[in-house]
């Protein structure tokens, strides 16, 4: 019940959440009280795990794979801002996806005070692909244990003072879906998006800082990002108009809103496109359903490109402006274009022959090994083994 109410927060437009959430949080008192009652009078004395959502989409994709394997335990799921559940549930282990934001630091602090025997496991061990923000990503000090996606992330955490004996390299559970083929069939996917057998070009946006709604909410300067957003989107939609034989999917960043994409497509009279936004996410169409079923990916320094590399999909990086924010690690695994003409030629070439340059292929394989450990479909099992070791006292330092 808590998970249902918590996930409903996604339905509230971001710009209204400041007004709605104070009232909305009151409704969490009922399920929290039920958790307290169920815990207090439960005859079962199994170890308890609390899964905490920080980034709903990313966390859900991993938690949904891990939880079914934890049959020896009972667990609850909640949001980071529902601190009352920690006091009510007093879990033996709290699984959280980051400990670097002020909000999650406060949750960890409250956990230490109200439930001192609770251990904290940081599951989202991605690290940072950009050296510029590495120190920030490695600043969390509140967890007892950490899961690192790969050796690179582990080395970075040790560099900034983390205990190497408390970091376990496991890969990322949500990426198990690719080698295990746990995704939507091509037929079902085409039926939902309406591509009708046409080649599919996926444009994955990464311009959340260029979104007017978000920039107002977070009060950042978004001028350069907004210009980049307009220029790249204009190029993609112009190419879509010139090539009605192709189908274009526009996948929004999970934190981004469709403030201009549909409008710009409609202005061009396009019929060969679809925007995949928040409604699609609520219908359970995630990146792991999309990536295996597209033919080429167009992006700007987006982490979704790494998932396309896992599926051996050709990718194009649109460096229309020389921004330092374009992380080199995410650019090198794609064919780079700098304007609309180059983008059109690259799309048509890769649709005809999807083979990438051998140097790019080698770089991708090395990148996946360094950042994601083994793409063998067993990351979930490795995370489960770590949780077992912590709760059954098989792991200690």
Explain what you see:
The protein is of the alpha/beta class and 397 residues long. The chain has two domains: 2-178 and 377-391, Rossmann fold, CATH 3.40.50; 186-372, Glycogen Phosphorylase B (Rossmann fold). The chain contains 19 helices and twelve strands. It has helices at 2-7, 17-26, 29-41, 56-66, 84-89, 102-114, 134-137, 151-159, 186-193, 212-218, 223-242, 261-267, 278-282, 287-290, 304-310, 328-331, 340-352, 358-372, 379-391; strands at 48-53, 74-79, 93-96, 119-122, 145-148, 167-169, 199-204, 246-251, 273-276, 296-299, 315-318, 335-337. Helix 11 packs across helix 17 (340-352). The radius of gyration is 22 Å and the shape is elongated. Residues 1-30 have low confidence and may be disordered.
Ends apart, CA distance between termini: 36 Å
Mean pLDDT: 82
Runs with pLDDT <50, length 5+? 1-30
The strand order across the widest sheet is 2-1-3-4-5-6
Given helix and strand content, the structural type is alpha/beta
Q: Which fold name corresponds to the CATH topology of the largest domain?
A: Rossmann fold
CATH-assigned homologous superfamily of the largest domain: Response regulator
Rg, Å, rounded? 22 Å
Overall strand count: 12
List the helices and strands and how they pair.
Blueprint: H1 2-7, H2 17-26, H3 29-41, E1 48-53, H4 56-66, E2 74-79, H5 84-89, E3 93-96, H6 102-114, E4 119-122, H7 134-137, E5 145-148, H8 151-159, E6 167-169, H9 186-193, E7 199-204, H10 212-218, H11 223-242, E8 246-251, H12 261-267, E9 273-276, H13 278-282, H14 287-290, E10 296-299, H15 304-310, E11 315-318, H16 328-331, E12 335-337, H17 340-352, H18 358-372, H19 379-391
Parallel strand pairs: 1-2, 1-3, 3-4, 4-5, 5-6, 7-8, 7-10, 8-9, 10-11, 11-12
Helix pairs in contact: 11-17
């Amino acid at each position: 019940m808590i998970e249902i109410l918590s996930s409903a927060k996604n339905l509230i437009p971001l710009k209204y959440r400041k007004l709605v959430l104070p009232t909305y949080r009151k409704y969490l008192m009922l399920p929290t009280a039920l958790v307290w009652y169920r815990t207090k009078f439960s005859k079962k004395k199994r170890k308890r795990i609390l899964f905490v959502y920080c980034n709903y989409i990313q966390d859900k994709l991993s938690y949904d794979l891990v939880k079914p394997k934890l049959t020896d335990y009972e667990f609850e799921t909640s949001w980071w801002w529902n601190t009352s559940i920690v006091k009510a549930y007093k879990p033996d282990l709290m699984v959280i996806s980051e400990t670097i934001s002020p909000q999650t630091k406060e949750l960890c602090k409250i956990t230490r005070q109200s439930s001192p025997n609770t251990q904290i496991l940081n599951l989202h061990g991605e690290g940072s692909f950009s050296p510029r923000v590495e120190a920030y990503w490695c600043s969390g000090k509140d967890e007892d244990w950490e899961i690192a996606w790969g050796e690179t992330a582990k080395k970075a955490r040790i560099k900034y003072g983390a205990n190497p004996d408390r970091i376990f390299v496991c890969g990322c559970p949500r990426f198990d879906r690719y080698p295990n083929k746990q995704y939507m069939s091509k037929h079902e996917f085409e039926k939902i998006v309406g591509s009708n057998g046409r080649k599919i070009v996926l444009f994955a946006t990464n311009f959340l800082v260029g979104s007017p709604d978000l920039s107002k909410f977070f009060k950042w300067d978004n001028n350069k990002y907004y210009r980049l957003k307009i220029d790249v989107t204009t190029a993609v939609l112009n190419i879509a108009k010139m090539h009605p034989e192709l189908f274009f999917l526009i996948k929004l960043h999970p934190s981004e809103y469709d403030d201009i994409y549909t409008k710009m497509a409609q202005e061009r009279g396009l019929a060969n496109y679809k925007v995949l936004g928040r409604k699609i996410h609520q219908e359970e169409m995630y990146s792991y359903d999309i990536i295996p079923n597209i033919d080429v990916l167009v992006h700007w320094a987006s982490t979704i490109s790494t998932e396309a590399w896992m599926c051996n999909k050709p990718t194009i990086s649109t460096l229309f402006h020389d921004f330092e924010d374009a992380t080199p690690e995410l650019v090198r695994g794609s064919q780079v274009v700098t304007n609309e003409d180059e983008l059109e030629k690259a799309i048509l070439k890769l649709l005809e022959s999807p083979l990438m340059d051998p140097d790019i292929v080698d770089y991708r394989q090395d990148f996946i090994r360094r950042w994601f450990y083994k793409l063998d479909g067993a990351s979930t099992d490795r995370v489960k083994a770590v949780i077992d070791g912590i709760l059954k006292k098989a792991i200690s330092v």
